[in-house]
Specification:
Layout lengths: L29 H14 L7 E5 L14 E4 L5 H11 L4 E7 H7 L1 H10 L4 E6 L34 H7 L4 E6 L3 H13 L4 E6 L11 H7 E3 L10 H8 L6 E8 L6 H4 L20 H4 L4
Parallel strand pairs: 1-2, 1-3, 3-4, 4-6, 5-6, 7-8
Antiparallel strand pairs: 5-8
The structure holds thiamine diphosphate.
Length: 296
């Protein structure tokens, strides 16, 4: 195993291995996502000591103890502020956050909005299986209209959130979409997201064989194509918005938009911009006894 101070050693997949058994349903998209994440971290030369993997609550979050490295398992919908705080405190870490569409566009939609605006230096993998998987198939904010779910047996009546439209309208500096059945594609996009300076939003179109019967693995397989193999200009936000629109017939995957001049949150702060020190280097010990003694 290599570490921050002995970076000459190369990292291997085995370093991210965990002895804990995976518990996802057979055929779940989470298996491929986890494999691709490990591959991308290794390809980027990120050791488990240099990675901070942050998990939300949900089926996706049940991967938190099935991979090695520094990990944090947060509350439902709340992983982005935790990950943002970590990225601000120690810029040397590669911070990856994972959450479901329920957490991201339901409970935590406010955090998503401000994480994009802040351009915190995080890779955010949003597992969009278009339902609340862990709690057994309720409709989420991305479940399509009229689709019947366990919470809505007569079909969803609310207008779904379109993740790419939302992210790009908020000024995302990196917005990508990829299919959980495409491990090579995920590896490629995850690597670009990890290397990006700022908030890298990766929406993963994830199949859920147990509760999402409307867009199964084969449905995506027949519709997705790699937009990065076309003449799409990833630095053109309007082109990205147009390319992202279709989620029904021909679904563009790959990097839709990337701002090549993205400046992450901590580098935008004039006070800290030229400081070599990290916030964690400035942590001091304070004697708070005088303040607490009155409480006795
Ligand atoms: C604030 C809050 N609301 C609801 C729950 C209950 N809950 C736990 S997991 C979950 C579903 C998770 O769905 P999603 O975020 O889409 O992730 P998935 O399981 O599909 O990967 C819910 C509703 C909770 N733990 N906390």
């Amino acid at each position: 195993m290599s570490c921050n101070s002995c970076s000459t050693k190369t990292v291997g997949l085995a370093e991210y291995a965990s002895p804990n058994a995976l518990t996802w349903c057979p055929g779940c998209g989470n298996f491929g996502i986890q494999v691709a994440l490990k591959q991308a971290l290794v390809a980027q030369g990120v050791t488990p000591h240099q990675a901070m993997l942050c998990f939300d609550v949900g089926c996706n979050g049940n991967g938190s103890d099935k991979i090695d490295g520094y990990r944090f398992h947060g509350l439902h919908g709340r992983i982005l502020p935790v990950a943002a705080g970590i990225a601000c405190a120690n810029k040397k870490l590669t911070v990856v956050a994972e959450a479901g569409d329920g957490a991201t566009f339901g409970e935590g939609v406010n955090h998503f909005v401000h994480a994009v605006r802040g351009n915190f230096d995080i890779t955010f993998l949003c597992h969009n299986n278009e339902n609340y998987g862990l709690t057994k198939g309720q409709a989420s904010a991305t479940t399509r209209e009229d689709v019947a779910m366990n919470s809505n047996p007569d079909g969803v009546t609310s207008t779904p959130i379109h993740p790419q439209r939302l992210a790009l309208s908020l000024g995302a500096t990196f917005s990508a979409r990829i299919f959980s059945g495409d491990i090579a594609g995920m590896n490629r996009v995850f690597q670009a997201a990890i290397a990006h300076k700022g908030f890298a939003f990766v929406e993963i179109l994830q199949n859920c064989p147990t509760y999402n019967k409307h867009t199964p693995h084969e449905w995506y397989q027949q519709r997705v194509y790699n937009i990065n193999e076309t003449d799409h200009d990833t630095s053109n936000r309007a082109a990205a918005v147009a390319a992202a629109e279709d989620i029904n017939e021909k679904v563009a995957t790959g990097i839709l938009y990337q701002d090549p001049n993205s400046v992450p949150f901590m580098m935008r702060d004039a006070v800290r911009k030229d400081l070599g020190a990290e916030l964690i280097d400035e942590v001091k010990t304070y004697d708070i006894t005088p303040y607490t003694s009155r409480m006795r």
